Structures are given as C-alpha cells and as structure tokens.
C-alpha cells in the first residue's frame, strides 16, 4: 500500500475508536457526501463493511468515520489532489453476507482502495483472510476477548491497537 494512503487509513481507524461515536441508528446506505461535480480531486473509495442489523451492531462508528473523512478532505496538505469517500455495506454479523458483500465491493464500481471492517469477528475474519488476494488492506476495530493480541494472523488485516503500537 502506498505510504501516502496509510495516514488516512490510520486516521479513519483511530477516529472510529474515539469517544466521538454515536449510538446505533439506521443510516442511509448511500455515500452521505458524494464527490461534487465541480471537485477536481480524484475520489478514492473505501469499502465500509459494518453491521447495521444482526447480533452485533457496529454502525455506531459511522459518525466518527464520517468526521475522519471530513477532516482529511478539508486538509489540502493530506492527499493533495485526492478526496476520500466510503461505500457503506451492511453485513448483519454473518460470514456468508460478509463474503458476498466483499466480493461485490471488489468487483463493482467505484474501485476500492481498502476496507474498514466492523468489530464483528464473524464478518471480519473471512474478509481479512482473502483481502490480500486483492491487494486490499483491511483496518478493523479491536475485537474483545483477544487476550491482548493486536494483530491478526492475516497479513493485510490491521487492528487499531496494532497500528498504534507501530506508530
């Protein structure tokens, strides 16, 4: 992954873990801030795989992620000539839905540069295990019950805690 994209990935992951998170709510699954027609910057897209329904709700991180995107896009010194956006998908903490969503996101426009996974390991583990085949880095929330493990066994799967240790 290009090092210029690492900072925005980290910022997105870190802000989603901050105290700026709202309670779970129903969100419109369209990009809330699509690129403006008069914006000359090249849009870059993340696939945001979250659980808006099912046994684990991770949509609470959406306001923090949107704030991170806004802060990155407003600072013209970060990623000059580019703007960041995300495509939101719902995987109700289900392995089959997560894999189906992942493959649709990989092969459908717009092209994605990375994945932001949810804290639901049932959904996150399968997508992390195949993301390297598509040269996509997946940043995810830290899952509970890992006993202090900060890095998954998958090469392209990074947790927020692991990223903080590396920085």
TrEMBL record:
GO terms for molecular function: G protein-coupled GABA receptor activity. GO terms for biological process: gamma-aminobutyric acid signaling pathway. One of its GO terms (cellular component) is G protein-coupled receptor heterodimeric complex. Its main location: membrane. It is found in: Membrane. Keywords: G-protein coupled receptor, Glycoprotein, Membrane, Receptor, Signal, Transducer, Transmembrane, Transmembrane helix. Gene3D superfamilies: 3.40.50.2300. The keyword Cell inner membrane does not apply. Residues 63-139 form the Receptor ligand binding region domain. The keyword Membrane applies. It comes from the Eukaryota. Residues 1-24 form the signal peptide. It holds the Pfam family ANF_receptor. This is Receptor ligand binding region domain-containing protein. The lineage of its organism: Eukaryota, Metazoa, Porifera, Demospongiae, Heteroscleromorpha.
